[in-house]
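The freezer alarm interrupted the setup, so I double-checked each line after restarting. Inputs confirmed:
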Amino acid sequence: MVTLNHYLFVSGVLFTLGLTGVMLRRSLIVIFMSLEMMLSAANLSLVAFSRFNLVDGLPNYNGQAFVFFIITVAAAEVAVGLAIIVALFRARQTTNVDDITSMKY
Amino acid sequence: MAWLLLILPLVTAAVTALVTRKNGSVSAYISVASVIATLAISVLMLLQGTKDGSSFTWIAVGDFKLNIGLALDSLSRGMMFIVTFIGTLVHIFSLGYMKGDESKGRYFACLSLFMFSMTGIVLADNFVMMFIFWELVGVSSYLLIGHWFTKNAPVEAAKKAFLTNRIGDFGFMIGILMIWGMTGSIAFDEMKETASAAATAHSKMFGIAVLCLFCGAVGKSAMMPLHVWLPDAMEGPTPVSALIHAATMVAAGVFMLARVSFLLSLTEAAQLIAWIGAITSLFAAVVATQQNDIKKVLAYSTLSQLGYMVMAAGLNASDAAMFHLYTHAGFKALLFLGAGAVIYACHHEQDMWKMGGLSKKMPITFATFAIGTAALAAVPYVTSGFFSKEQILVSAYNGNKMMFFIAGLVAFLTPFYMMRMFTAVFLGKPRTDQAEHAKEVPSVMNLPLIVLAAVSIVAGFGVVAKVVLGEHYVHAAVPFEVLFVSVSTMIVGAGLGFVLYRGKESEPLPVAFIRDKFYLDEIYIAIVRVFQDGVAYVSKALDHHVVDGITSRGSASTVVGLGSLFRRIQVGNLQAYAFLFGAGVILVVYLLVFA
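Predicted 3D structure, all chains:
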């Protein structure tokens, strides 16, 4: 049987992979993709909760509605974030995050 | 009516200082009028024998009452007469001496302030009131010494006088507090009753208390080691020197000792007082033999005579001390005013070797100065100084033979240095142009000299002295040895002075060590400098390390340290921030869920 725990485990793994990517990858676009992966991990766990906590025999649609909101917010965030990356590239000619250290003390 | 004695000079001082300051002549006449009025009142009191002294309570705290009151016994009546009499003559003399001075108004205001303060000391009936006026007299002295404050020397001299006085006053204050604690009272008449019980109960403390009281006299009457201010105080105008530093203010110390003579007679510490007086007397007489400035000679002479008085007071012969104070006031004021006339006539020249032959040019001054010199040297029977000095020599003879020997030495040196000065200034031929062109001073300055000359002759006779001194007049039997010593030292001293210094152009036997006052001034300056530098060094170290270390440098360095600690978090690396952010979230979740 595939239970709630399996879905949550997968969601956790996805989230951790995304977090590791954010902390360890050097390219800004890859960091951004990892960020998106963290968001989808959250989506997955929400949908899993919605499916496994039944209300009168039907799934709890609150979770699924929340997922829609998250997807929308993620899309908006991508738009803004890519705009920032493009501006940063135009200013520094690099997307390597190790080279952006002008706020160092 | 006795309160007028205090109020008149105070009002005069206020008026001349605030209202008529710019107009010198008006201030002068107001001051002279006021002091003549006080003279009249004090003569009246003296002749009537007024004993009524009123007082009112100034501070009352629980059981303690501090009065401002007047004590009118024969001691204060006599002293009051001396103060106002000499004060009047000095005021009249100042009319002439300070004629061309541009700050006459300020001068007379300060003189009136001095008369007020001195009156307060004389009439005080308790120690605290006396102390207040004691300090006021110091202030007046400071103001008057520094009258010509645009020059440096008077300013330094005034500072020195006030600071030295202050050191003495510190001891004085401690003495007053100790006596108060032991006898339970600060008023003189109440103290008299409880004093002997207190002295037997705590004899050592009582002796120390009396010595502390004596510190006040050491400061005010310029005994060693605080004698250094009096010769420097000659930077003030000569009438000031006559009034304050010869006749009255420096006598205040002796007066105080006479006032509390009942305390001195109860303790062995009075011996030390007498020794200090004797040593000062000898030291000053020795230094006076080498001074070239006529005012300095007279200053050291004053020191020496004050030493005599203090010695007598220490030997429980305070009546002899008061007698000598009274005659000394007369002839010393005469000598100072005479010196003032000479200085005025020689256009403010004070070096005796630049004078000479003035006997022909200024006959009245010459005659009166001769009488003053004779009185100081104690020419037998015809001068007042003889009678009072004899009484002092008698008390020394009866008290302590060593002190009698020292007193005899001083009695030899006194006519010696006076004859030296007299010969150099008045006899022989004029040595400079200024002396050549000197002429007699105007009568406003001559009249006080003549009056004082008459006083110097008659003041010693019993009839006159009994009126002024009342029950304090003393005429003890004079042993033959004392008479012999007193007359022979006078003859030998005067003769030697005349022979050695006749016809000389400058000091024939200069001894630098004596002339420079045994280098005591330089030693004092070195001591003060060492202490000041030491204290300054310690204070600076304390201030820099302790005070600043805690407050300004401490807090600053703490902030800087913490700042440099925290800025290491600003690495500028995006992923480091992300890591810290994540770690923070995990910590919050843990704390919320599991703890």
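Quick read of the result. Residues 61-92 of chain A form the longest helix (32 residues).
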